[in-house]
Amino acid sequence: MKIPVEIIVGNKRIRKMALPSRYLKHIYNVLNEKWFGDRLNKKTVVAWSNLDSEECIAFECRRANRKVPLLLVHQDLRQFSKLVEFQILHEMAHKALPLRYEHGEKWQGEMMRLAKAGAFKDLW
Ligand SMILES: [Zn+2]
Predict the structure, then answer these.
(1) Alpha carbon of 94 to ligand 1 centroid (Å)
(2) Residue 79 C-alpha to ligand 1 middle, in angstroms?
(3) How far apart are CA 93 and CA 112, in angstroms?
(4) Among 35, 48, 82, 90, which is least packed by CB within 10 angstroms?
């Protein structure tokens, strides 16, 4: 069942519909255990959404829905399972940081850690 969500892009609040997915949540859980020592929030809802180009192809939006952390994946990626996994890892790297660091040095460092650990093997 679709749920309404609100995401923050720059200083804009944008309302979207999102479709929580067991398939996406399973990928999130596996990656969380394998690459993040299971320390990322297990209550995170992982959902398909109709994001626009300016909103990226996936979105991590802790601030938008305060009760439930969300991770949105663009619905057009459905048929590209490797891209889906890559994008979820991208968003999880944001979640691993205490605040939203966009794509600055700390986030780059987290992506390098994942790369060196082998998280992107067969994905890039
Ligand atoms: Zn990002």
Answers:
(1) 7
(2) 21
(3) 10
(4) 82
- CA-wise closest residue to 121 among 78, 89, 99: 89
d(CA 75, ligand 1 centre) in Å: 17
User: How far apart are the CA of 91 and the centre of ligand 1, in A?
Assistant: 6
Cα(11)–Cα(108) distance, integer angstroms: 23
Q: What is the C-alpha to C-alpha distance for residues 111 and 123, in angstroms, rounded to an integer? A: 13
Spatial neighbors of 114 by CB under 8 A, at least 6 apart, are: 35, 89, 93, 120
Quote the pLDDT of residue 69: 81
Q: How many residues does the structure list for the chain?
A: 124
Q: Domain spanning 3-117 has what CATH number?
A: 3.30.2010
Per-residue pLDDT reduced to its tens digit, 28-71: 999 999 999 999 999 998 999 987 766 566 666 545 556 678 88
